[in-house]
Amino acid sequence: MEEIERIIETRDWLKSHGIDNIEVGIVLGTGLGELASHIEVEKEFSYNVIPNFPIATVEFHFGKLICGKLGGKRVLAMQGRYHYYEGYSMNQVVLPIRVMKMLGAKHVLLSNAAGAINLNFKKGGLMLVDDHINLQPDNPLRGPNYNDLGPRFPDMSQPYDGRLNQLIREIAQEKGIALAEGVYASVAGPMLETRAEYRMLGRFGADAVGMSTVPEVIACNHMGLPCACVSVLTDECDPDNLKPVSVEEIVATAKQAEAKLTAVYIELIKRI
Ligand code: HPA
Fold it and tell me: Is residue 266 over pLDDT 90?
């Protein structure tokens, strides 16, 4: 089956189960599922019942697709995302994003847990992603281009939507939430980086590093779907003073910071 047929099959299945007219798609990253509890749920599906959604492998991801009302808009939220390191193809990683677009989504809001490369940025803080560096060894646009989705050679001069970013800055300021801003580098993972790799990432111009998001942002840009991303900084990647960090600590730090992200995104959805 061609990828485009899989996307259509998934869209049709969701439509036939009452999911349609989506205004905003949301992707909740590691340790950041709480936003979903604010949704007035209309429908919700475990990923393992949705055609072409691979079965999620990482335990701390709930793997649920939730449709409902939030901030007066109809949203479709992914509680847990697919990562390249889990072994999925890039087409599998972004299938839900492509389906969101086909269900009407006009905006996509992403989130993730990331390591702070910029040492002025502190663990537990938020970073608005204004640009990225793709260091994953693949991307979802390799292979035949589906002209119905977007162009062969998409522009990436402003991968994160300027208007959404401006709203996020204003909302964070109004709420007294400190918001750093910078460049997110995506690596394949699943291991965290060595000291030499963190040093290299800093010299490359990255302010934060993580294992997700960029494939989804590439898919959004391909389809002309405005997106934004806020990272929760979960560890400080100081190559000259690197302490061991576990994924459990990363998840715990993301949990501590998630209320700030939730507050910003709920207000953003109201104002979109
Ligand atoms: N590296 C890669 N991914 C991450 C990190 C990190 O330091 N922290 C959270 N996700």
Answer: yes
